[in-house]
Amino acid sequence: MQLALTYLQHINHNMSIFDRLLSVIAPYECLGCRTEGSLLCDSCNHQLPVIPPRCYRCRKVSPQALTCRPCRSSSRLYSVRVATIYTGLAKDVVWNLKFHGAQAVTKQMAKRMFRNIDPDVSYVIVPVPTASSRIRRRGYDQAVLLARELAKLSGQPLVNCLKRTNQSHQVGARRSQRLAQLKGAFRVVRVGSIHNANILLIDDVVTTGSTLESAATLLRRSGARRVEALVFAQP
Ligand SMILES: [Zn+2]
Ligand SMILES: [Zn+2]
């Protein structure tokens, strides 16, 4: 069985079909309560801890998760909204998404993130692309999947305009090394579609924010009016 599954995963490039197939052969159980159906059931999703609106950098309380005034001098992000804390169940969910091909759970994660979207603002939704070597290993980019779901839920357009320029990744790298790696990590395509736009960057987890900042700097330089971010979890 395991062999057959591995084989299927290997040959099937359309991962959403594979995911559906897998859910028939071996249905997911909720990581929180073991209910069958999804890795994160509606009830457990609802019970994930809420992060009070805060500045993502200094963690001080800030309305609508705006980057606070002192932090704004060194940030290009207008706000970073975070759906939940990267711990316990949320951490398990992200781990399964990254390392166990559990891409169907992005639907549930996006549902949760959608609660943090400002319904009065028109956004262009932009996923923060994962390093391409990781996508090749995994077969999908979780930020793109999350962004797709959020575009569906919000009715806002998705523009996949950020591309990775290199394949360096951050595991084990020190902060100074990471920042150096990030210089020039992205390039922008389809510049016309982001001109004067409010960008909503989508990612699964934010830690230091250096990736988001690097993307925001480039997008602002490329003509975006404002760059906000919406992520599933932060430690
Ligand atoms: Zn559950
Ligand atoms: Zn701050």
Report on the biggest sheet. 4 strands, parallel
Distance between the termini: 37 Å
The proportion of residues forming helix, as a percent range, comes to 25-40%
The overall pLDDT, averaged over residues, is 86
**Oligomerization category of the chains in this entry:** single chain
Total of domains: 1
Given the structure, what is the number of helices?
Answer: 10
Q: Ranges with pLDDT <50 over ≥5 residues?
A: 5-13
Hetero ligands: zinc ion
Strand residue content? 5-15%
Evaluate the radius of gyration.
18 Å
Indicate the structural class. Answer: alpha/beta
**Inertia-based shape:** globular
Strand order of the largest sheet: 1-6-5-2
| Strands, total number | 6
Give me the strand/helix succession. Answer: HHHHEHHEHHEHEEHE
Structural account:
This protein is an alpha/beta fold. It has one domain (2-234). It has ten helices and six strands; from the N terminus they run ααααβααβααβαββαβ. The protein has helices at residues 2-11, 15-25, 42-47, 69-72, 88-99, 106-114, 132-138, 142-154, 175-182, 210-221, and strands spanning 79-85, 124-127, 162-164, 186-188, 198-205, 226-234. It is globular, with a radius of gyration of 18 Å. The chain starts with a helix and ends with a strand. It binds zinc ion (2 copies). Residues 30, 32-33, 35, 41, 43-44 line the site of one zinc ion.
